[in-house]
Specification:
The chain is built from 25 helices and no strands. By secondary structure, the chain is mainly alpha-helical. The protein has 2 domains: 48 residues, no CATH class; 460 residues, no CATH class. Helix 7 runs parallel beside helix 23. The chain is globular, with a radius of gyration of 24 Å.
């Protein structure tokens, strides 16, 4: 076997990116520095060539990829759609129409959780809309601003990360697609990013249990740690706090507020078009290759062109929103154009992270930047511009598993290791997108090397799916614990809550869901337990902990009336 051309140095770009992001709290410059280090390595230290390769071979060649352009188009289009329905007041109408059912502290908290599920298409929109809209209702029901910030923050990213139509799915699919390109043609045959995205949903333990924990806390009415003190302070309050306007609150530019269905219809149209196009493109592809074999729905959706479907779904959804809001005179002329521009501009930081993370992924892969396939029998053919990081990690993992000390044991712990690593990186950087972009393309070939080839289809391998899910869930876990996370900051600002108070009150719940996800999730999967057994056990454990350690804020408290 030919010696790896870079060895441990093939890990330099992601390691440099992580360390720089932790030190500077800036994910975009950190990714760019990591890519520059990689270009210097592949150019053998030749600085002029490294600068040329940085822009031409790495950054530019990644930017002009058709799938990348479709993903960027969808992200901008759905951002513009959100801008239109926010500016018209339609989304606020939708949230306020649902909030009328909040009559008690329990229904107020459960209702806020349910509305977080309704605003599933973007975590920023979720934080800003629910925080500003529900603050007066929570004040009336004597629910603390800390509790509101927790509900908003702990539903925003999890529901957006799971939704089939959101600003997240295009990014997650692109990272998974990049990881698949790091496998050989034979290894990746029959796999699709969309199929893996759907298949790993049950294994995203932290995301699922966090959403359930928010519901359980509201329904059972028990709190733990600093949140219990915050709730008791809210119950002792004699007067409603002054509701302060903040710069993060989504403003309506409409003279007349649009009704709720002006928000619901465009979102529904996007969902229908995306699913319809994935089905049509997948069925067309399967008809060409299936022959006389029966075509399964799973195979159809797995073969569909998700990037094409997302782009045209976003385009038709934006067109629908414009027709409704402009045609019915809720938003017209310069205000309409400003709403589109503002909505799209909010997505630009995410696009920058996506571009740079994808560039790093391609740099550490084994694929040629011009699309050429490797020549059979030639090892490391593209080493002049590719680092083959996946091959290095796979080799090390195989060597460890086959050694007397390893004895295959690391495979059992791999989902847990990946979850913790993703959580640490996201905590230190405050970026879910950046964490997923750094880890996903490397984890997919690593997880593939860890599984037994005799286990059957990769898309049905629990270890493989748990490793992928651990990146996507661990990134959100670390983000929820991080005081520098953008959604953590937005949630506290939009809810009118002190930022540090929000971090301290949310931390115990995030650690509870994270701990349960490890002990009864990633470890269990590693040792062969069924995901369908582990999921209810996790929920039951959280319920037990809330009853044993949680306390009702009303207990032993003299509640004074307004």
């Amino acid at each position: 076997m030919e010696i790896h051309p870079y060895g441990w140095l093939s890990l330099a770009p992601p390691v440099v990116a992580v360390i720089t992001a932790i030190a500077t709290r800036r994910i975009v410059p950190a990714l760019l520095l990591g890519i520059a280090v990689g270009a210097l390595l592949t150019s053998q230290g030749n600085l002029p060539r490294a600068i040329t390769d940085l822009f031409e071979v790495h950054l530019w060649s990644t930017l002009i990829q058709p799938d990348k352009l479709r993903v960027a188009a969808f992200t901008l289009l759905i951002g513009a759609t959100i801008g239109v329905i926010q500016a018209s007041g339609a989304m606020r109408s939708l949230v306020e129409s649902l909030s009328r059912f909040a009559k008690t502290r329990r229904t107020g908290q459960v209702g806020a959780w349910a509305m977080g599920l309704v605003v599933f298409f973007d975590d920023y929109a979720n934080c800003l809309l629910l925080g500003t809209t529900l603050a007066p209702i929570c004040d009336r029901l004597k629910i603390s601003r800390e509790k509101l910030a927790y509900i908003v923050d702990s539903t925003a990213a999890p529901v957006a990360g799971l939704a089939l139509v959101s600003t997240w799915i295009a990014v997650e699919l692109d990272y998974i697609r990049e990881g698949l390109t790091n496998l050989t043609a034979a290894e990746s045959a029959g796999l699709s990013a969309f199929e893996l995205f759907v298949a790993c949903i049950p294994y995203r333990f932290y995301v699922i249990q966090t959403l359930l924990l928010v519901l359980l806390v509201g329904w059972i009415g028990r709190d733990i740690g600093p949140m219990l003190r915050a709730e008791r302070q809210a119950l002792r309050r004699k007067e409603l706090p002054a509701t302060q306007e903040n710069d993060t609150a989504p403003k309506s530019d409409s003279i007349r507020r649009a009704p709720w269905w002006c928000a619901a219809i465009p979102i529904g149209v996007i969902l229908l078009v995306v699913l319809g196009l994935i089905y049509l493109t997948g069925r067309s592809k399967m008809l060409l290759v299936a022959g006389d074999k029966p075509i399964l729905l799973r195979d159809i959706f797995g073969s569909g062109d998700s990037s094409l479907a997302l782009m045209y779904g976003g385009l038709i959804g934006l067109t629908t929103a414009i027709v409704l809001c402009s045609g019915l005179r809720y938003l017209r002329g310069p205000r309409l154009m400003e709403a589109i521009s503002n909505g799209a501009s909010l997505i630009l930081p995410a696009l920058a992270i996506l571009w740079l993370a994808s560039t790093m992924s391609r740099m550490t892969s084994n694929k040629d930047f011009e699309g050429r396939q490797a020549t059979a029998g030639i090892a490391f053919e593209f080493k002049d511009h590719r680092l083959y990081t996946g091959e290095y990690l796979k080799g090390k993992l195989i060597d460890w598993n086959e050694s007397e000390q390893g004895s295959g044991a690391i495979t059992h712990w791999l989902p847990t290791i990946i979850f913790v690593l993703a959580g640490v990186i996201a905590f230190c950087t405050g970026s879910s997108y950046g964490t997923m972009g750094i880890l996903t393309p490397m984890v997919i070939p690593l997880a593939f090397a860890a599984i037994d080839p005799g286990d059957g289809a990769i898309s049905q391998s629990p270890i493989f799916l748990a490793c992928l899910a651990s990146v996507l869930a661990g990134a959100i876990f670390g983000d929820h614990c991080s005081p520098i996370s953008d959604t953590t900051i937005l949630s506290s600002q939009a809810s009118g809550c002190d930022h540090l108070a929000h971090v301290k009150t949310q931390m115990p719940y995030a650690l509870l869901a994270g701990g349960v996800s490890i002990l009864l999730g990633t470890i269990g999967i590693g040792f062969g337990f069924s995901v369908w057994l582990l999921l209810p056990l996790q929920t039951a454990c959280m319920i037990a902990i809330l009853f044993v350690f949680g306390r009702r804020p009303e207990d032993n408290l003299e509640i004074e009336s307004f």
